[in-house]
Structures are given as C-alpha cells and as structure tokens.
Specification:
The structure holds 2 protein chains of 2 kinds.
Chain A (H helix, E strand, L loop, with lengths): L16 H11 L17 H6 L4 E7 L23 E3 L6 E3 L3 H5 L4 E7 L6 H10 L12 H9 L9 E4 L21 E3 L16 H19 L5 H12 L1 H6 L11 H7 L3 H15 L3 E6 L8 H25 L6 E6 L3 E2 L11 E2 L3 E7 L7 E2 L1 E2 L6 E3 L4 H11 L7 E4 L2 E4 L14
Parallel strand pairs in A: 1-7, 1-8, 4-12, 5-6, 5-7
Antiparallel strand pairs in A: 2-3, 4-11, 8-11, 9-10, 13-14, 15-16
Helix pairs in contact in A: 4-12, 6-7, 10-11
Chain B lengths: L1 H15 L6 H9 L6 H18 L10 H13 L5 H9 L5 H10 L3 H15 L6 H12 L4 H10 L12 H6 L3 H13 L19 H11 L2 E2 L6 E2 L6 E3 L5 E3 L2 E2 L5 E2 L4 H4 L11 H11 L1 H17 L21 H11 L4 H10 L27 E2 L2 H12 L9 H10 L4 H18 L13 H9 L1 H7 L5 H7 L4 H13 L5 H13 L4 H13 L2 H4 E2 L1
Antiparallel strand pairs in B: 1-2, 3-4, 5-6, 7-8
The chains are: A alpha/beta, B mainly alpha.
Chain lengths: 433, 542
C-alpha cells in the first residue's frame, strides 16, 4: 500500500478549503440538507478567530474504541471482522465502512495507527493516556486537558478555561488537576448539559445578589490589607469574581439557541448535542472543551456495538469539522480523538474484542495538524506495530506542539521541576503542519 | 495542670512497657524527672526562635489579639470557631494566665480528641482517609494519650484481634496490594522522607536517597499480604531490582539511616528444642525505626508544626534530607529529641506548640520593613480551613448547629455517671454528621492552596448554601431579623460569624450597607450573614 509518508507533503491539500469542501459536500448527497447553513460571519466568531487564540476539543471514546472498525481496518484477514474498508479523500488510505462521512474528510485529519501503550486495565490506562505519563507515586501529574487549559487560557476571560462533558455514566472520570490544584479544575457537566450552581438562587433578586457579593469582596479586601498571605485572599476573591460572568454566559450552554437546521445536522443524539454545545463554547473563546462518549468497551458483540456507535460518531465529527471550518475556527482548534486503548485482533467467543494496547490508533484534526497525514503502520493482522511506534508521552507531546506550547516549559511540583512533556517524549512531527 | 501531666507520664510508661525498645528510655527519664512540663518546652521553642529572629535581624509581628487567638486555637484544637459565649468569657477574663488556661481547657475538653482523630486520619491515611472505625480508633488514642510510638507499632504490627484494635490494620490493608506504594507511604507519613524518585535510579536531586534506600524500604514490606481486610506476612520472598548498572540485585532490608537488617539464618532462629521464632520483616522495620528514632520523631513533630503554624520547620514535610535544612537551626532537632525522650506524648507536644510565642503572633504585618520570608516564622500565616472545619464553622456561625452548655438534668447525669462532656460529644458528632454533605463542595486544604470557582459558585448560588442563611434554618438570621437597632444588629452578626467585636469603623460601614438594602430587614440580615460567612476572614484561620 502506498500511503502518504509522514515526511512527505499531503496530497490534494486544498488551497481554498471551503471551496473544495463544498464540492465534496455536494457529492455526498443527503448528508447535509442545505449547503449554506450557518456560515457565520457574525457573533463573537470573527473576534476569537482573529485573536490568535488556540483551542482544543478533546473527544474521549471511553472504554476503548476498536481501531479495526475505524482507523485501521484489516479487511479479509481473520482479525478483520465483517466490515469492509472504504477509500478516503487521502489516496491509498482506507477506513472502516462505518465512517463514510469522515472518509470524505480525511484530508483534514491525521491518523496515528501505531500506538503501543502497554497497559490494558481501564483505570491505569486512562490515567496514562490522559496525563501522557506513567504514574509515579509522589508526582501527581495533571490531565493533558488541565495543562492545555492553563496554557491556552485568556487573561481576564469571564468564561471557564475548561469545560468537561461526561454525561454517560460508564467509565466516568474527572480530569485530574494533580499538583496544579483546585483553581485549575474544569467546570464539570455530568448530570446535565447545564452547569451546576449557575442560576440565580430562588427568591433572591439580581440586585441583592450583586450587593452582597460587593460587600463580601469589600470585607475580604479590607481583611487582606497588611495581611501575611494576602495572595490567598486574592485567589479566593478572584474565584468569586468569576461567578457573575459565568452566570451571564449560561446562554452558551443552551443549544436551543442554535437554528433548528444546525441542531438537525449535529443530530439529536447526546453526543451530537454535546459536540454542538462544545462548538458554541469554543467559538465564544473557551480554550479547552472535553466531550466524553461512553460504551465502547465491546467485549460482547463488538460488531453490533460498533454498528450502533460508529455512524453517530462519523456523523457528528464530520459535521463538527465542517462547522468549525466554515466558521474559520478549524485552523485554531485542535480536535483530538482518543481512548484509553484499542481492541484485540482476536475476536473472542462472545463475538467481542477485548482490551488491546500493543497496536492501536488515534486521530487528530485542525490546529497544527497536517491534514491527510497517516503516521505509523501495523502488520497485516493488526497485531503489532511495524512502523512509527508511539507511546502516551509522544502523543501528549504532539498535542502540546500542535497548539504551540513549548515542550521544555517547566512546572514545579514542590521542589521538583517537571517539564510539560516528559523528558524522553518524541512529538510526531510527521503529522504536524 | 500537674495532675494532668502526671497522668500523661503514667500512661506513657504503661504503654511504653509494651514497646520493648523505648521502655528503658522512658523509665530512665521518669526516674530522673527529666520530663519538663509543656510550658517549659514552649519557652525553649521561644528561645530558638528569638535567636533565629535576631540572627536574621527580624522583628516579629505583634502578639495576636485575644479574639484572634481564641478563634485560632479553637479551630486548631476543636475544628470549629468559638461560640459567642466562649468569646465573651475569654474577653471578660482579665487574668494573665487566661491563654494558658484556655489551652488547658481545650486540650482536656471533649472536643479535642474528636477533632484530632480527624486530623491524624488525614495525616496518616491521606487518600484513604474518612473511615469512621479508623477515625474512632485514633480518637480513643488521643483521648487516652496513647504515645505516638505505640500508635505506630499498632498500625504496623497489631495486635488487631480485638474489635477496638482491628481498625488499626487499615493503613497496611489499604496499601498491601502494592508493596512499593506501602513502602513509599510509610516513609512519607512516618519518616518524613519521599524515596519514590529513587525507584528507577538514584534520586536525581537528593544525594541522600539511592536506589538501595527505595528497595531497602520495599524489602521490609515485600512479604506483607492483605487488601481484603486481613493483613498477614509471608515467611519468604525477596525483592530484586535492576540497578543503574543494568544488573539485577537482591535488595537488603535497609532503613533510611543506612542501617541494614540481616535476615537470621535458619540455625540462628532455632535454639535448643524450641520452635523457631517467626521472623517478621515488618517488625524489624518498627524496631530499627524506633532505635534510629531521628526520622520517626522529627517527621511527626514537623507535621504537627506544619498543621499548627502553616509551614513545616522542614518544608515540604516529606522532604527531610541533608540538602533541605530545617528553617530554624536546632529547633526541630531539639523538639523531636525532647518528644522522643519524654515518651512520644502528642498532648504535651501540641500544648507546647500552641503555647509558644511563634504560634501566638499576629498575621498582620504592621512594620515598614518588607514582609519576611515564611521560613522566618516572624508572623502568623493565613491557613485555609479544612473542608470539615469550614462546614462545621458555617453551621455554628449561622446557628444551624447546637453547641449549648449542659442543662441541669444533663449536668446531674454526667456527675452521676462520673464522666463529663457526654452531651458535648453527642452534639459534636451530630454536627459532624451534618457536615458530611456540605464539605464535599469545598476545596481541600493543601500546602499550595488554590480556591476553585466551583466552591465560589456553590456558595453563591446553590440552594443548600442559601438555606444556611435563611431565617427558616438559621437561628442567627431569625434573631437578627427581629432587632430594630441596626448598629446592634451588625455588631451581633460580626460577633457570631467572625468571632470578634467589630471595630467602630466597621459598624458604621455595615450599618450604611444595611440601610441601603431597603425595608426588608429579614432579607437584608440574611444577605449580611452571607457576606460575612463567605468573606476571606471566615475562610481562613488567621
């Protein structure tokens, strides 16, 4: 197979993305009812796009999605399963037939097919992948998203730096803030797409709410004057200073405010709605959004469950990429698709696939990513990596570099200096623009 | 005072006889009347700090005001703010000894063991804290003045056969599935040393810690079994590791001091026809740690100093090594030695620290000179309340909790039963139960504290937080709503919430704010309470 070399230049790189894209859309009839929906020149879009701010959307397929049914099909092999593979916009590269829409957009995406991350238990594997570091007892390293939010945060923003959607109950995790502490904790959306504690308390007028906060702030500032440890008070006060801004931004979480046509395009699935909400937040300037989608842990009936889950993923992600592109946000928004591991080549007695970390895949699009790049290769049966092996630290370093973060930048955990990327991490330059 | 001291000494001796290593030390100390009362220990602490200040040409902050001191020491020793009757009693008292008497009252009152059980639970169990059986075990230890070395021995070796002592196995049991985690946590909690960076190579930053130390600690635990509620120890098993030279080595049992424990040969354990005594690697660790007592005693002294003063004498508290000097020359060394030779008495140590001048300094810096470094201990530090302290204090301040003195009948019951404080214990545990839900919404107290937006949102908008200040639940709000004189109203609010009388300036300011809020005095009272309980002065111990 002659795939695009990671060192080479992507073929068919469109000079004018939108033009090429619309051409492609026209060819895929029925995907989008109308071709000209929601191309926004209005709202805050233009502003945040021009500000040079980079953002990240982290899509987490909890439980471990199957590389065989998605990014690295092995059609007609014993390990390949029943699905066909289909050609993509990148000549020579095929994906599973359950992703026809993304196949058309592979020239916007980069795929890594050569992950070898060793750990096959959900919790420890998720810790490894989401922090990009093997666990050390005395080093409580934060999740990649927490680091990204801190690095990409806009000074003085009234919005949260990090919003994390995890509404499905399976495999639920909260982004670990590690040694960075509570002030870097994301806003968690776990029970509802509306944030907690963001509405004015019942029976309290807006004016009273404001007046009492004013008094609270005044008393606290007076207390801090001449006080040893006044910075603790400033930190406390600045947390309260965010409250009213967040209350005003609650409309951002309300996807009912989107035109019906847009909501239809994303689909009425939970994942679709969350991705639409994520797009609204990113557009308004939230630097880091995570959307988790559960139930990929297909020990039983792997093919049935992927037949159910993958089309939704295919539709939502392809709509999202198009939407971001049309709004001029794709070049500044890194989209990450990751799991804690992939699935076994062996199909078990329950027609399922079990946990597999020796050879699996992940995907990227947008900011800093070379569209159409395919990194690494597995053998004919997908059992081992034969080219371009990458580990969790390499993936983390690739993510940081894609959005322009200096890998050598150091944090401190107590006295110990800790570089953002692990010392021996090698970013996958071949998929970076 | 004298009576209490002698009881403490007696119990130490009683317990010490079960710990064969120290019994002789303690007996000798008692025989020579070397155990000085805590007030003399406090004077010794003051001496060290005064030399430290003059050597660094620092003039320390003034002594904290009475109300500030009362709030500080009540929070530290009972986990809550003082009530207004406690405030009045203390401010009215004109005696010179009133701080010392307050400390004795708190240290010997029913709430100190209840609170300090929680404090020690956090310190020992860290991520596994919160088990009520374990907390109660620690509470009984504090109540009975069980020496710290005895506690350590019980946690490591048992006996765990009785219901009362069974919870003590929990430290090992929660960690027994991963013996390197068990070794690392034991070294951090009980010896103040973090050897985890020496796992894969000699410690990159600290010359003291070699791979041998890490695997040496693991070797004491590698035969420990458990994880399902029953801790045991196998009689065989070695630890091997890949050295930096790439060669596989078998780890020797090596303590942090470098002392190596040899495993006896089969012949050595057999004497005559007797059955060979079972060799326990964990027991060897306990023995060597109590013989080479510097690590064991300094670790707890440093941790309690950090808890009470806000910064360890060695900081961070799990980084005691030769390149990280103690901030005040000689103090930690002396205090730890005194603690060990006087029978590992936590009660005496805590009394001494809160009686010291350093503990009682103001957190205001009123001098022209720039604020001195935190390692000078020249002013009190702001310390965030723990989640439980905050929740507990919120309930007390707003009048959602009952902390009343016993009535006539209850007094008679307690006198008849020959025990005091039963009613307060019941009240305390009732409030603690109320805090369980509330505290989850608050930020954890940690050495590098950062306030989260989630806590601010909770306090600003969550219905539970609003209910705390509404007259339906808050006794304080209901009472304020009935007061017609606004100056009196704001004074009462400040005294209840901030545990001090307001300044005249503040009365004027709050009265003006209150008047601006319109005619609904009940509503305005509730919002005034809200602003006070969410103010930084309430959030921190200062």
């Amino acid at each position: 197979m002659t795939f695009l070399s990671t060192n080479g230049h992507p073929l068919n790189r469109p000079l004018h993305r939108r033009g090429v894209l619309q051409g492609m859309l026209a060819g895929s009839a029925g995907v989008f009812g109308v071709g000209n929906v929601g191309i926004a020149k209005d709202t805050a879009t233009a502003k945040s796009a021009e500000s040079g701010q980079n953002r990240v959307l982290f899509i987490w397929l909890a439980g471990g999605a199957s590389q065989f049914e998605m990014w690295d099909p092995k059609t007609s092999r014993e390990t390949g399963g029943p699905f066909r593979s289909i050609p993509t916009a990148v000549p020579g590269y095929h994906v599973g037939e359950l992703m026809p829409k993304l196949a058309q957009q592979m020239d916007k995406m980069a795929v890594v097919r050569s992950l070898n991350t060793a750990i096959t238990a959900h919790g420890p594997a998720a810790d490894l992948i989401s922090t990009g570091r093997p666990k050390e007892p005395a080093l409580d390293y934060p999740e990649i998203g927490v680091v990204l939010a801190r690095e990409l945060a806009v000074q003085g923003s009234k919005l949260p730096d990090y919003v994390s959607f995890f509404l499905s109950t399976e495999g639920r995790r909260r982004p670990a803030t590690g040694f960075m502490g509570g002030s870097h904790a994301p806003m968690l959306l776990e029970k509802s797409m509306r944030p907690k504690d963001i509405d004015l308390p019942e029976g309290l007028s807006d004016l009273r709410h404001k007046e009492r906060e004013h008094l609270r702030n005044l008393l606290s500032s007076e207390f801090a004057r001449g006080r040893v440890g006044g910075q603790l008070v400033s930190g406390y006060n600045s947390a309260f200073a965010k409250v009213r801004g967040l209350m005003q931004s609650k409309g951002l979480f309300d996807i009912e405010q989107e035109p019906v046509t847009v909501r239809e395009r994303y689909g009425r699935t939970a994942f679709g709605q969350q991705c639409l909400a994520a797009r609204r937040l990113l557009e308004a300037g939230v630097p880091m959004v995570k959307v988790a989608r559960g139930f990929w842990d297909s020990h039983h009936d792997n093919f049935e469950s992927h037949r159910e889950l993958t089309p939704d993923f295919d539709n939502v992600l392809s709509v999202l990429l198009t939407d971001l592109d049309e709004r001029g946000l794709l070049d500044s928004t890194l989209v990450i698709v990751l799991s804690e591991f992939g699935r076994t080549p062996k199909i078990n007695k329950d027609v399922g696939r079990d946990h597999y970390a020796a050879a699996w895949s992940c995907a990227f699009a947008g900011c800093g990513i070379k569209g159409g790049a395919v990194h690494g290769k597995t053998d004919a049966d997908g059992k081992t990596v034969v080219d371009g092996q990458a580990n969790a630290s390499d993936i983390a370093a690739t993510i940081y570099r894609a959005v322009g973060i200096d890998l050598q930048k150091e944090y401190h955990s107590g006295l110990r200096p800790v570089p953002i990327a692990k010392e021996d991490a090698k970013p996958l330059d071949g998929i970076l623009a | 005072m004298r009576r209490i001291l002698s009881i403490a000494v007696l119990t130490s001796v009683m317990y010490a006889t079960t710990s064969n290593v120290l019994a002789e030390d303690v007996k000798a100390a008692v025989a020579h009347k070397e155990i000085t009362p805590p007030i003399q220990v406090a004077a010794k602490i003051d001496g060290f700090l005064e030399s430290h200040w003059s050597a660094n040409k620092v003039t320390p902050a003034k002594r904290a005001e009475d109300a500030t001191f009362l709030r500080r020491v009540t929070l530290d020793l009972t986990g809550r703010i003082p009530t207004t009757s406690e405030l009045d009693r203390f401010l009215r008292d004109k005696s010179d000894n009133k701080r010392r008497e307050l400390i004795d009252r708190l240290m010997n009152g029913p709430e100190f063991p209840l609170h300090f059980g929680n404090v020690l639970d956090q310190m020992i169990q860290t991520r596994y804290a919160g088990n009520s059986a374990f907390v109660d075990y620690l509470r009984r230890n504090v109540r009975d003045s069980k020496p710290w070395d005895v506690v350590f021995r019980e946690l490591m070796l048992g006996p765990w056969e009785t219901d009362a002592l069974k919870p003590a196995s929990r430290f090992l049991d929660k960690r027994a599935k991963a013996t390197d985690v068990l070794a690392i946590d034991t070294a951090r909690v009980f010896f103040g040393v973090d050897v985890s960076c020496a796992k894969c190579h000699d410690h990159p930053l600290v010359d003291d810690w070699k791979q041998e130390h890490f695997y040496g600690m693991v070797a004491f635990f590698n035969r420990t079994t458990g994880g399902k509620g029953k801790v045991g120890e196998k009689s065989e098993g070695e630890v091997t590791f890949l050295g930096a030279d790439g060669k596989e080595q078998t780890a020797r049992m090596m303590f942090l001091s470098g002392r190596v424990v040899e495993e006896p040969t089969a012949a050595a354990t057999k004497s005559g026809n007797e059955k060979p005594r079972r060799f326990s690697r964990r027991e060897q660790l306990v023995n060597v740690a109590l013989q080479q007592k510097v690590f064991f005693s300094r670790a707890i002294v440093n941790r309690l100093w950090e808890y009470l003063v806000g910064r360890g004498l060695v900081d961070p508290v799990d980084q005691m090594h030769s390149a990280n000097d103690s901030a005040v020359p000689g103090l930690l060394e002396w205090l730890a030695d005194d603690f060990a030779t006087s029978g590992y008495d936590l009660h005496r140590l805590i009394t001494a620290i809160v009686s010291s001048r350093a503990y009682q300094l103001s957190s205001l810096w009123e001098q022209d000179s720039p604020l001195p470094n935190s390692s000078s201990f020249a002013a009190a530090r702001l310390r965030p309340l723990s989640r439980r302290q905050l929740a507990f204090s919120l309930l007390v301040a707003t009048g959602n909790a009952e902390l009343t003195a016993p009535n006539e009948v209850q007094t008679r019951v307690e006198r008849y039963a020959g025990v005091s404080g039963i009613q307060r214990i019941e009240q305390y545990l009732t409030i603690e139960k109320q805090t369980a839900d509330l505290m989850r919404s608050f930020d954890m107290r940690r050495s590098e504290f950062h306030s989260s937006v989630a806590e601010a949102l909770f306090l600003s908008n969550n219905p539970t937080a609003q209910e705390l200040v509404t007259a339906d639940n808050s006794d304080l709000a209901a009472r304020l709503g009935k007061i017609e004189d606004t100056r009196k109203l704001v004074t009462m609010a400040v005294r209840n919430v901030l545990s001090r009388p307001p300044s005249e300036e503040q009365v004027v300011q709050l009265t003006a704010w209150f008047t601006r809020q319109g005619d609904d005095r009940q509503q305005a009272s509730e919002q005034l309470i809200w602003a006070l309980v969410t103010s930084a002065e309430f959030r921190f111990n200062h």
